[in-house]
Specification:
By secondary structure, this protein is mainly beta. It has a domain at 2-152: E3 ubiquitin-protein ligase SopA (Pectate Lyase C-like, 3 Solenoid). The chain is 5% helix and 34% strand. It has one helix and 21 strands. The protein has one helix at 202-212; strands at 2-6, 9-13, 22-23, 31-32, 34-37, 45-47, 51-52, 55-57, 65-67, 70-72, 75-77, 85-87, 90-97, 105-107, 110-117, 125-127, 130-131, 135-138, 146-148, 156-158, 166-168. The strands form three sheets. Strands 3, 4, 5, 7, 8, 10, 11, 13, 15, 17, 18 and 20 form a twelve-stranded parallel β-sheet that branches. A seven-stranded parallel β-sheet has the order 6-9-12-14-16-19-21, with no helix packed on it. Strands 1-2 form a two-stranded antiparallel ribbon. A hairpin with a 2-residue loop joins strand 1 and strand 2. The longest helix is centred in the last third of the chain and has 11 residues, at 202-212. The protein is elongated and about 70 Å long. The protein starts with a strand and ends in an 8-residue tail after the last helix.
């Protein structure tokens, strides 16, 4: 295992060697120590399917449905999850980079030691997503998404675009939002209780506060 440190968050990640993995595009019964490149699994229905210690690159999982079971010890790169529905799965000790989650629905998903780097979550819906260990989003696009009843304490959201993101009944206490764009975030202020910001984000926070409290600002 290797580690990646983002701010104060240290994420445990897999260290896979492609030469040690078995090449396949067959998802039947799940994957263990598999190397998958360019598989076309658009619209697949996955139920109780686990993927462990595997490397997936350039896979098409758009419009797919994945219910229950887990993703453990995996590296996923340039994979398309757009329009997919992920329900009741656990993602642990995994790195997901350069992947697309546009319009994806994640419900009752549990995260532990997960890194999302350079991913798109625009228009994605996260409901009751929880972090039970270190979780980081770096250089991700989270615009116009909707997060509700999520429990993501101490998550790192570094250098991400949060424009237009809606937060409802979420707990982000201790989250590190430094370097992220907050302009246009739609949320009651208590959803941001205890987060860490940098000075350059204070103007965005001021605008958010004015909108959240329906304040009138007048110069006369």
């Amino acid at each position: 295992m290797r580690t990646s440190t983002i701010g104060d968050v240290k994420v445990l990640l897999p260290d896979l060697e492609p030469d040690d993995l078995d090449t396949t595009t067959d998802l039947t019964g799940g994957l263990t120590e598999a190397l998958v490149e360019g598989a076309a699994w658009h619209g697949s229905h996955l139920e109780d399917v686990s993927i462990r210690s595997s490397l997936l690159t350039g896979v098409d999982l758009s419009e797919s449905t994945w219910e229950a079971d887990s993703l453990y010890g995996c590296e996923i790169a340039r994979t398309d999850f757009s329009g997919a529905t992920l329900t009741g799965i656990t993602i642990e000790r995994s790195a997901i980079t350069g992947s697309r989650f546009t319009g994806t629905r994640l419900t009752d998903v549990r995260l532990k030691d997960v890194l999302f780097d350079g991913c798109r979550f625009d228009y994605a819906t996260l409901q009751r997503v929880t972090a039970s260990g270190s979780v980081a989003f770096t250089d991700c696009t989270l615009t116009n998404g909707a997060w509700s009843s999520c429990r993501l304490p101490r998550v790192a959201l570094r250098s991400c675009d949060l424009g237009g993101l809606e937060l409802e009944s979420c707990r982000l206490d201790g989250a590190d939002l430094r370097g992220s764009r907050l302009q246009g975030v739609k949320t009651p202020l208590d959803n941001l209780s205890g987060v860490t910001l940098d000075e350059e984000q204070l103007p965005d926070l001021t605008q958010l506060t004015v909108a959240a409290l329906a304040l009138t600002v007048r110069n006369d």
